[in-house]
Amino acid sequence: METIITGKGVHILFPKDCGNAPKKRLLIDALAAFIDGDHAGLEKRVDMEKVSLPSLPEGVMEVKVHRVITHGKEAGMHLTIYCAGRKQVEAGAFLSFRSAANTIISELDILVDNNR
Fold this sequence. Notes:
This protein is of the alpha+beta class. It is built from two helices and six strands, in the order ββααββββ. A six-stranded mixed beta sheet has the order 1-2-3-4-5-6, covered by helices on one side. The chain is globular and about 40 Å long.
């Protein structure tokens, strides 16, 4: 696992990658921009007219990305969100880019499991 620390001090742990799938790192960077509330950074990666971003739980301390899968214009992520003073949250994010060659996220669906 690799770790980056956002400007807000949130640790993001993610699988070490061979570097052959640049969209995987783009998704990690987009996650960091989302956590930090970096709207300028998000606008570079997300079609804000088409994508509605979820709210972030209070007190996020760590996000563990278990898996990132990309294929063509589609991608998926499995994550666990750890917050201060509350139970962890399991989530899955399913994304589409404008095209296989494009790096702008044009669709986003998130499934959350609060019962683990």
